[in-house]
Amino acid sequence: MTTRTWDDAFDAVIATKHNANQIRWQTARKDAAFDVIRHQVIVQTQAESLLKVLRQGTISTNIYLRRLHNFALDMEWLLRTIIPKRQWPKLEPKEKRAITAEEHQKIIAGESNPELRDFYELLWQLGGSQTDTASLRAEDIDWETNTMSYTRLKSGTPANIRFGEAVEKILRARTKSGCLFPQIIRWKESDRAQAFSRRLRLVGVSGVSLHSYRYAWAERAKTCGYPERFAQQALGHGSKAVARAYARRAVVEVPALEDFEKAFADRKVIKLKFPKAEASATDFGELQAGTGAG
Q1: What is the pTM assigned to this prediction?
Q2: CB atoms within 10 A of CB 268
Q3: Staple 213 to which of 123, 240, 275, 281, CB 3.0 to 4.6 Å?
Q4: Domains of the chain, with CATH numbers?
């Protein structure tokens, strides 16, 4: 208690993280703003020191200092909060937006690297995070059901998404085993971000990042009436509806967003497969009343 510093706390937190999360914490630790408290003994730290860190840092500094402070409290390395919850400076992140279809076409149209082009196209079609998509393997594909299944590296939650003809064409052209993107998987997140930024400058697009593809997928899903529970399952976010279905061992076959969009444009009806025991008027009513495809 009398010698443990905030740098020691960073060590302890990083030891509990894995993969991309661990890399994010290692990067956050290098933030120069933390030099103010880095070698201070935790129990001797005053609120003024933490506020100075926040003034010198960024939104990211605020986020990681909060987490570090709360970790110290949970571990009982602090006897009380240093800054009360309501007194922390309010987070004001920059507005984030989805990438548009027109912008996406500009990005892939002139991309000479086939691996990068397919990578950006899968981000658009599947809505995965850049790290999850870069980590996809041929073994994650079930060709019998045209389903991509993987575990999210950030949260550890499963993601299951059906794909259509456009994605199938891309996947068929990739490797038959191992990593789908053998070069990109070796890059750090910052390397992929820099490559994308260079591409954006070349085509005259601004205000977006690789994560904007995830926003775009969600917006496309909402626009064409893709049921929310399907979108949550496809993007790897748990929901009460999905949790209840799995508890009853029910299986919901999630249609590909690509097919759903085509059906929406053509005003066709998508046939969804529900277990007989679980199918109900509510399930199909959602699809006919505006929540689902017309």
Answers
A1: 0.63
A2: 12
A3: 123
A4: 6-86 (no CATH), 101-288 (1.10.443.10)
